[in-house]
Amino acid sequence: MLLFSSPVLQSALYGTGDFSVHILYRLIRTIDKGNIYYTFDPKERGTLKKWSVLLVLLGLLVISFPSLQALYYDWQQTRVLDELEQLQTGLSQLNHTFERGMENDHSDQKRTLKTATVKPSTSPGTLGIISIPVIDVRLPILEGATQENMKFAAAHLVETAAIGQSGNAAIAAHRAHRKGRLFNRLGELQIGDSVEITLADQTAFHYKIDRISVVEPSDVSVLEDPGLGQVLTLITCDPLIDATHRLIIRAVKVNS
């Protein structure tokens, strides 16, 4: 049995002021019949256990943070989509009610109601939904390519044409690392694939991809109006890891 109980040795070890030496001394083991015992007293053992649990919990939190962050952004994305869908459903019901009411009104009232437009109330900056069926993309579109907007949605660049108007409307989104998030699968698109946009007032626009390119981040020519009517330009980072360029998907509006 090995014991370090000498008062002289204890005094020497504690007197050094070296914390590591002190810890080493406290961890000196007593070996008896093949069993190992530690010299911590019960109070010290309880403190060490608490710190061990805290360190384990902290490590788990650090490891799981990216996944928790992605879940939070997915929740925000779903919330905005649900809000838009509820607004669109309410708009349809309201328009249907107006149409039924017009059947019983006088002719002058009918003419007045027919020209009335119902405006749904959306969250500030919420434009609509972009859908790309071939890669299972369905994202809310927010106004302004801010860092906060692009955490969970696609963003319309305010410097470009409005969606549904003549010119080049640009929409950007991050190319998240997790498959299926945001514009992660944009690189799978091919010329001829369809892109759909539905605004908050249920106005729908259909586009066909006619050009795919990879450009330098400083190349702003992709935002210029190519003179093809209503054009939609989708922008994301490329390649997926350590992005150095921009993947550009251009689509032209077609008649639905």
TrEMBL record:
One of the Pfam families matching this protein, by short name: Sortase
Active site annotation, chain numbering: H174 (proton donor/acceptor), C237 (acyl-thioester intermediate)
InterPro entries per the UniProt record, alphabetical: Sortase (IPR005754), Sortase_D_2 (IPR042000), Sortase_dom-sf (IPR023365)
Skewed-composition ranges (Basic and acidic residues): 101-111
Record-annotated membrane-spanning stretches: 53-73
Superkingdom to which the source organism belongs: Bacteria
Native species: Paenibacillus silvae
Keywords: Hydrolase, Membrane, Transmembrane, Transmembrane helix
MF term (GO), any: hydrolase activity
Protein name according to UniProt: Class C sortase
Region (Disordered): 101-120
